[in-house]
Amino acid sequence: MGKTSDLTDVKKAIIDTLKQEGKTQKEISQQIGCSQSAVSRHLNGKSVGRKQCGRKCCTTRRGDRTLRKIVEKDRFQTLGNLRKQWTESGVETSRATVHRRVQEMGYRCRIPQSRASSCKFHTSPSFQAEIVGIDADIQREFARQREHLERSLSTLQKKLVKDTEIHRADNVRVMQENVTLIKEINELRRELKISRTKVHDLEVALGVERKNRRSSLADSKGSSISDPHASGVLRLNIEEETARIIELQKLEIKRLHAVLQSQDVTAGIRPSSVGRLPSLTT
User: Fold this and answer.
1) What percent of the chain has a predicted confidence (pLDDT) above 70?
2) Running DSSP on this structure, what letter comes out for residue 106?
3) From CA 118, how far away is CA 131, in angstroms rounded?
4) Taking the chain, what is the end-to-end CA distance rounded to the nearest angstrom?
5) Which is nearest to 37 in space by CA: 6, 78, 80, 62?
6) What is the structure's pLDDT at 5?
7) Which intervals of the chain form a coiled coil (predicted)?
8) What's the pLDDT at 160?
9) 28 Cβ partners below 8 Å, 6+ apart?
10) For residue range 114-172, what is the model confidence (pLDDT) as tens digits?
11) What is the DSSP-derived secondary structure letter of residue 236?
């Protein structure tokens, strides 16, 4: 059967309503589904609910505020330091309580994983000397490793600087080569444009010359048809033809000179005539 602390506000209102209707506590308990004692305590005003269980809290709100101030002063403290400071402020608690209160505040505290042994062997002078020797060896090894790492780091830094310089020089060289190639390409394009212009001009000139030659051939054909006494030989080059004519004329002149000289020789050998020839009369 249900208890008084299990009664909800709705059930309590139903109990009050049924009581006003004149029903008994037994009928009400059967209808609600709870015990008669719970209905009786509710109707008599003794329904105070279930009390809190567990032991009483060993700290006060003031002590909790003190712990919060200690934690916020330095958040990187161990659990032992927190407990020591809290105890000095006047709050005697255990480590578990300190840990629980710190977690309830939303912080975390560092708990040492191991405790210092109180054995006589660990506190003996020989053991302490051995610890000092081990610490010295550890320090020497640490120094050696640190020196090795520093040398490695300096070597890597020098190599990085060297590789950076080489990379920069390669980039500069590639950029200079690109500039030179671009200039050469521009020069070649300019020369190609000029050569194309010259070729176009030559083609135009050849076209005009062919046109003139065709017109001259047409004129010569027309003149040969109009003049029937003209020779049928087509003159291709007038300058060559005139030079050839001049040469022929020179040869003819030389031949005539030779004929005159031969006639003078024959006139000297032949005897002179007895009488003179009569003068010509007009």
Assistant:
1) 71
2) T
3) 16
4) 194
5) 6
6) 54
7) 139-205
8) 93
9) 15, 18, 19, 39
10) 455 555 545 555 555 555 666 777 888 888 888 999 999 999 999 999 999 999 999 99
11) S
Residue 33: closest CA among 14, 59, 17: 14
**Torsional sign, CA 119, 120, 126, 132:** positive
Contact 235, 220 (CB under 8 A): yes
- Whether the pLDDT of residue 94 is over 80: the answer is yes
Helix, strand, coil in percent for the chain, rounding step 5: 70, 0, 30
Please say if the pLDDT value at position 35 is more than 60: yes
Q: Any idea which residue has 């309830």 for tokens?
A: 104
- Tell me the DSSP string of 198-225: HHHHHHHHHHHHHHHHHHHHHHHHHHHH
Overall residue count recorded for the chain in this entry: 282
Q: What is the DSSP string of 1-23?
A: -B-GGG--HHHHHHHHHHHHTT-
What's the alpha-carbon Rg for the chain, to the nearest Å?
Answer: 69
* Residue 27: other Cβ atoms inside 10 A: 14
**Which position has the higher pLDDT, 217 or 164?**
164
As a whole number of angstroms, the distance between CA 39 and CA 20 comes to 13
